[in-house]
Amino acid sequence: MSSQPPHPALLIPGPIEFDDAVLQSMSHYSESHVGPAFVSTFGDTLSMLRKLFQTSHASSQPFVISGSGTLGWDLVAANLAEPGDDVLVLHTGYFADSFADCFETYGSRPTQLKAPIGSRPQLPEIEKALKEKKYKLLTVTHVDTSTGVLSELKGLSELVRRVSPETLLIVDGVCSVGSEEIEFDKWQLDGVITASQKGIGCPAGLSISMFSGRAIETFKNRKTPPGSYFASMKNWLPIMQNYEAKKPSYFATPSPQLIHALNTSLTQILSKPLSERFAIHREASQKVKKAVTDLGLRQLASDSADQANGMTAIYLPENVKVPELLPNLFKKGVVFAGGLHKDIAAKYIRFGHMGVSVTDSNRDDIDRAIKALETGLSEVGYQKA
Ligand SMILES: Cc1ncc(COP(=O)(O)O)c(C=O)c1O
Predict the structure, then answer these.
(1) pLDDT (tens digit, 9 = 90+) per residue, 299-322?
(2) Candidate of 75, 92, 145 to mutate for ligand 1, largest count of ligand atoms within 8 Å of Cβ
(3) Domains of the chain: residue spans and CATH
(4) Does the CB atom of residue 138 touch ligand 1 within 6 A?
(5) What pLDDT sits at residue 2?
(6) pTM of the model
(7) Reduced to 3 states, what is the DSSP secondary structure of residue 312?
(8) Which residues lie below 8 Å from residue 122, measured CB to CB, with a gap of 6+?
């Protein structure tokens, strides 16, 4: 039984529901951010991230910085690209536009490779683009939260290494880390940025990232200083290295309470094989997707290979409007999100199925949500043809 006050199950694609222990670890008494106890907790947290991202290279570098997922874009754009550098941004929805905006803010030149809504750029077109121009970075949104499209990383990495080996491969994993398989070393990724509030199951407020030794070298070899102060790796790199070596260090005050929460959620996640966690997410996702199909509805991601395992974006029937359906579901105790992709926002809803809502067998969030969707749709006038 949860000790949290009764509340509707938050089944948006982040923030997600919290485990009691994660939430309770935030009520830790105040302690110095440079005291030995906290430094040890922070250091262990960084080491656990290596396991979550599946990297054992000593040169890989985790960062945990107060901020949200957006700060990860700044870390990449301010430190790994220089003004005038070309960046290839693979577009599968809303979040690629924002990442591209972030690159422009720092003076680099993003080129977006777009796919029709619900799909993703295919390897032959990516290969063509990589052969046309020298790109310093290629970015891919692992799961675009606006469309529920999952991008495939292994084949992409092989392509980049073959066609343009100097290009750094950067993954926006804000909506994938913790719910989708990521093999940082095996897939030769150069950077994965994420945040605390989705698959990791921790309250919002932490930018979490992993960079390869190659990415760190790229930063160190910059000709120009980073165009950001707070997001500068120059400022954060020694701090992260010191924390992991259990040495006190200061650049900007971390949030001890959030670090405690992250430490607890990572301890829970790593207490079981990661493969089991990903399999549970796949199973829950299949259940949701089958229910959606059985209802006669379509997903934005039409090809099953492109469908995320931690969320589902569902087109509504013609006669059903988002502002009618979502309050109906809320009354039934589940919170879904409306559409986000600007071209079709009014036409679909998003159902998040990550973290404790799927991994905790004592919870029935997913079954309740499916039931609510079935009855809610019929109450607002939908009948399957
Ligand atoms: C794929 C993706 N990237 C980046 C972000 C930005 O993260 P935040 O809202 O935590 O700043 C989000 C937020 O939902 C996201 O889903």
Answers:
(1) 999 999 999 999 999 999 999 999
(2) 145
(3) 9-17+273-379 (3.90.1150.10), 20-270 (3.40.640.10)
(4) no
(5) 85
(6) 0.98
(7) strand
(8) 115
